[in-house]
Amino acid sequence: MTITAFVPARSGSKRLRNKNIKMLRGKPLVVWTLEACIGAKNVDKVIFSTDSKQYWDQVSSFIQSDKLVLSLRTPEEAGDKVKIFDYLQQNIDNIFDKDTERLLLALPTMPLRTNQHIDQAIEYANHKECGVFSAVEYDAPVSFAFSIDAENRWSPLLESAPMTTGNTRSQDQVNYYHPNGAIYIKSLQDMRKHETRTFYQDALPYLMKKSESVDIDTEFDFYLAERLLNNLNREL
Questions:
Q1: Helices (H), 139-187
Q2: What is the CA radius of gyration of the chain?
Q3: What's the pLDDT at 231?
Q4: Which helix (H) or strand (E) holds 183?
Q5: Would you call 235 exposed, middle or buried from its count of C-beta atoms within 10 A (0-12, 13-18, 19+)?
Q6: Between 184 and which of 123, 149, 191, 199 could a Cys-Cys bridge form, CB atoms 3.0 to 4.6 Å apart?
């Protein structure tokens, strides 16, 4: 089973400028993801997809690997309104070699995802013969979620919300999960199907710990990831 990893890192992020190459413990953020993909024994090739030659030059100064290749996107292809799934589906035969059977999408903002996670997710996908996406449990019970209107009045997300029923015991709340963006595995055969609209169709979740699921979007996320990485380094 030939697997190619795809790591997209566009320039021009608005909330946190150039976050994909922002330094995290001595390495650009995206390098953590690229190294995890390269280090995975089940990954045959790693495509770094970016619209910035500067990003590629910086990555190349940290990584020398025969597995790693560049796929340069146009500014239009890397716009902030372009969905990676749509881009991959529309350009699949131009991006991937003919011998690639599965793609593995790894978003560059997940520095605590390791090559072990990637290998485990691939082995799970092979065992179940289906797509896989990584996920993590919500920090707080979703059953307590509510919205607020213009008058600051709240409305529960669920009809059986404990805030209305009074059943607020934590032991009685259902655990809910969400994708964390670390790993998506899909066969190219499925990607070519017109009815395939998301990575989640006919896929199973691969669960990761909260401490492994920090998604970098703000300065606080960087601070948290750095602290967690420092703790991991001390434990090794």
A1: 162-165
A2: 19
A3: 83
A4: strand 177-187
A5: exposed
A6: 199
Task: Tell me the per-residue pLDDT of 158-212, one tens digit each, with 9 for 90 and over.
Answer: 988 999 999 998 888 889 999 999 999 999 999 999 999 999 999 999 999 999 9
Contacts of 189 (CB under 8 A, 6+ apart): 101
Q: Is the pLDDT of residue 236 over 50?
A: no
In the predicted structure, residue 16 carries a pLDDT above the cut 80: no
Name the residue among 87, 49, 92 with its Cα closest to residue 68: 49
CA distance 1 to 65: 21
Q: Is the pLDDT of residue 130 over 80?
A: yes
Contact 31, 59 (CB under 8 A): yes
d(CA 113, CA 117): 6
Length of the chain: 236
Q: What is the pTM of this model?
A: 0.92
How many CB atoms are closer than 10 A to CB 203?
19
The phi and psi torsions of 92 (rounded to 5 degrees) equal: -55, -40
Burial grade of 34 (CB within 10 A; 0-12, 13-18, 19 or more): buried
Mean pLDDT across the stretch 41-47? 98
Q: How far is CA 223 from CA 107, 205, 217, 229, 230, in A?
A: 19, 28, 11, 10, 11
